[in-house]
Amino acid sequence: MTGQQVQERSTQRMTGYDRRMFALMNRREGAPMYATAVRRRFAVGAHITLTVASVAAWLLTVVGDQRWAMWTMLGLLLPWCVATGVINGATRGLLELRERALDERQRAERVRVAARARQVMQWLLLAAAVGAGIAAYQGWGAEGLLFPVLFTAFVVHWLMPLWVAGLAVQDDPADLDPEGLDEIP
User: Fold this and answer.
1) What DSSP element (H or E) covers 9?
2) Which residue spans within the chain are E strands per DSSP?
3) Which residues touch 5 (CB under 8 Å, ≥6 apart)?
């Protein structure tokens, strides 16, 4: 993409959808849930845990033919959505908003998050490949694990940018009082 195309794309007018999503992602009512780094890490950890439990329940429903797992999966859906909303609120919609709704700093942050997520996924896929190689070398039958492992890798690949973004968010700068502005060098 040429510089001209990037500039044209970045100066496109925001649509009504863009404005509504921007306002939604920048609401401050949920800020206490992600105000500190510890709370954001907890939200990401909870999201990862809920994702693991949901994927396991779905796989038990599909592969294991366990009917109770479907109800478990449905019960996990609402907390998973809340945790996703907390992370999206913490990142102010970094991964959900269209590019034209982001400023230059957010666009650069989106690129950094994507690069870091790709790097983490690369190492996870390498570990999975090594594990598969060891299983094949040992003669273990791993044919029944192909679908669950591939599906899990797909879900992790899909959500890794969200998790990385949630962990990479910095605290909001403290508000400066007008009297203290004279002391700033």
Assistant:
1) helix 3-10
2) none
3) none
